Amino acid sequence: MGFLRLDYLGYEKHSPEGNNSGNSRNGKYPKKIQTHYGESVIDVPRDRQGEFEPTVVPKHQSRGLSIEKLVISLYAKGMSVSDIEEEMKEIYGITLSTSAISIITNKVTQAAIEWQNRPLENQYLIVWMDGIVFKVRDQGKVVNKTVYLCVGLNKEGIKEVLGMWVGKNESASYWTGVLTDLKARGVNDILITVTDNLNGFTDSIKAVFPDATTQICVVHQIRNSCRYVVWKEKKEFSSDLKNIYNAPTKESAALELDAFEQKWGGKYPYAIRSWRRNWDELTAFFDFPVEIRKIIYTTNLIENLNGKIRKYTKNKLSFPNDDALKKAVYLAVSEIEKKWTQPIWNWGLIFNQFITIFENRIQV
C-alpha cells in the first residue's frame, strides 16, 4: 500500500519536495485482518500525522473484503497463486500466504459448480455453440482439451452463457451430452441453434431438441471451402462464394450455387460437395427476416466470447488440471457477462418477428 501513501503525500521517498510539508513517512505497522477465508497479516504504511487512510483495509476495521476481491481479480487475469502472493506483497504491501490465497481461490470452484448446475429458462430463442481448446496437464502429460460453451438468447433479448463442459477433442457425441445436460436443467425448447459444421452436430441437436432449426455457420463453411484453393485464386473464389450467402432468397442462393459449381466444380469438387451436402443447414437463415439472419448465419457471437476468454487466460500456457481450467474460464465468463445487461440491438423488432414466426411455441 506504499503507492497509496505516495499518492496521499504527493512526493517520493527522500524527495526534497517533502521538506517543510508538515507531514512525512513514518514506516509501517503490522495489522491482522479477517477475511471470509481466514486470518492474514498485512503491513500498513503510516504517516507522521496519522492522517493516511488506507483504502484496502480502512482504519479501525479488520475485515478485508476488498482483499478477497483483489485476489479473485488477479486470479481471473490468469495469475498463479505464487504470482498473486508476490503481487500482493510488492504492490500492496500485503503479506498473504499461498495457502490463504489458495483457500480464497478454491471458493471459486464451489461457485463455478453452483453456476454450472443452476436451473435454466425453459426456452431460448437462439443458442450458439462452440468449443475452445486449452492445454491441460493430464496424467503427467500436457494434452489439448476442449471447453464446450453454449450462449443462449432469452426472451428478454439478453445473452447468457448457459454452461461450460470440459472434454477431450470436440465431437458430436460429447455435444449430445451437453445438450442433454441443458435439458436436465430445465431447457425444454430451443428455436434456433447456430454451430460450426462439425460432422454429426446436427444429428446430436435433433436427438435432444428435435424441433430446433439448425443453422451451420456460413463463415466456417467458407473457411473450409477455401482451405485447398491455391493462393492466387482465393480472392476470386471467396468473392464468388459471397454471391451465394448474400443472395436475397434461398431460391436465388441455389441458382448462385449452380453458377459457382459451373465455374469451380471441375477444379474444386470437394468444396461443391460440402455445400450440397449441408445445404439445408447452411441456408436455414434465409427463412427469417434480415434482422434475424444477421445474428444466426454465423457463430461470430460465441467466437467473440472465446476471444475474450483467451485474453483473460493468456498468461496461462497450460493448466495443471481440469479444475484450474474451469475456475479460470468461469471467472472470465463472470467478468464478460457483467457487460451483458442490455438486450441485443433492435430487440423490439426482432422479438416481434420471433413471435410471428413461432406463434405456437413462444409463450409471452
From TrEMBL:
InterPro entries: Transposase_mutator (IPR001207). Belongs to the transposase mutator family. One of its GO terms (molecular function) is DNA binding. PROSITE patterns: TRANSPOSASE_MUTATOR (PS01007). Keywords: DNA recombination, DNA-binding, Transposable element, Transposition. Required for the transposition of the insertion element. This is Mutator family transposase. One of its GO terms (biological process) is DNA transposition. It comes from Petrimonas mucosa. NCBIfam families: transpos_IS256. It holds the Pfam family Transposase_mut.
